[in-house]
Design brief:
Order of helices and strands: EEHEEHHEEEHEEEEHEHEEEH
Largest sheet: 9 strands, mixed
Number of helices: 7
Bound molecules: pyridoxal-5'-phosphate
Distance between the termini: 23 Å
Strand content: 25-35%
Structural class: alpha+beta
Number of strands: 15
Shape: globular
Radius of gyration: 19 Å
Length: about 280
């Protein structure tokens, strides 16, 4: 199967599957999601992604109708149907199915939807560029909700400018990117925004912090601004599907790209971690 879809226990060709118009994901984006790569038919960092989905759901008062173990076994069951082991696995849980009305519907159960599509990791040595943009998202960015309009607008702008990502900031304070976290390295210290309500607590971010620990690089979790970003030695962009990208141009100016030894050490740690997890 090239691309597989799943909805509440039913599997099918992704491009042919249909879901009810009254799923609250359709008209409110009332739900949460996760995405992670797979390699050799192994779901990368599955425990962390499942735990974050449960945490996002709990913050929206959505009660999953399954345990984390049951969800993991359903995700794996779906993955094993794919011919290729190299994919992106996406899943979302919506509040349920009901006629449109803002309050939570009383008699409904959350809907689980999954999609698997083929995926190739980017070349980790290929550098990227970014633009900076005002962060116009709401104040619940720690919850991985389906409401992504400001992120989509930001990513489109980055794409139109020939860039890989949009680095978002609130009045100068860097938060994260449209679909990744961003970090800077200065004088051998990694600085990353704290995990408050302004950013998603990224799983690749957590792995980067672990990589710093293993390489003797000090980590400061604190706010930093666009000026500090432009003066930094390295700018790193992380997400589960991209692992670690090295950003060397921001808003058309050279930036970062000045501590190759640290970049190489962190990159090697993170890619070895992925290789070990997914058995090569
Ligand atoms: N920040 C945002 C807004 C995201 O959408 C994502 C990934 O989807 C990330 C950060 C990176 O998260 P993770 O490392 O868990 O993939």
């Amino acid at each position: 199967m090239q691309a597989l879809g799943y909805y509440n226990g039913e599997f099918g060709n992704l491009d042919e599957m249909r879901i009810p118009m009254t799923d609250r994901a359709v008209y409110y984006g009332d739900g949460v999601y996760e995405a992670t790569p797979t390699r050799n038919h192994i779901i990368y960092a599955i425990d962390e992604h499942v735990a974050r989905m449960f945490s996002s759901a709990s913050l929206l008062r959505i009660e999953p109708p399954f345990t984390p173990e049951e969800l993991k076994s359903e995700l794996n069951r779906m993955l094993q149907k794919m011919d290729s082991g190299e994919n992106v696995l996406y899943w979302q849980l919506s509040r349920g199915t009901a006629r449109r009305a803002h309050p939570f519907p009383e008699k409904t159960k959350p809907n689980l939807m999954m999609m698997i599509t083929p995926y190739r990791f980017p070349n980790p040595d290929e550098v990227v560029s970014a633009i900076t943009l005002e962060d116009t998202r709401f104040l619940h960015c720690n919850i991985k909700t389906l409401n992504l309009i400001p992120s989509i607008m930001a990513m489109q702008k980055a794409k139109e400018m020939g860039c890989y990502e949009a680095i978002l900031h609130r009045n100068g304070r860097v938060t994260e990117c449209s679909k990744s976290n961003v970090h800077i390295l200065k004088d051998g210290v990694l600085v990353t925004a704290p995990t408050d309500n302004l950013i998603l607590p990224g799983i690749a971010r957590r792995h980067l912090i672990e990589a710093c620990g293993a390489n003797g690089i000090k980590v400061e979790e604190r706010p930093y601004d666009v000026g500090e970003l432009m003066r930094s030695d390295e700018i790193f962009i992380t997400s589960s599907t991209s692992i670690l990208r090295r950003c060397v141009r921001v808003d058309g100016q050279d930036a970062g790209g000045r501590d190759t030894a640290s970049f190489e050490a962190l990159k090697n740690y993170l890619w070895n971690r992925l290789t070990e997890y997914t058995h090569g």
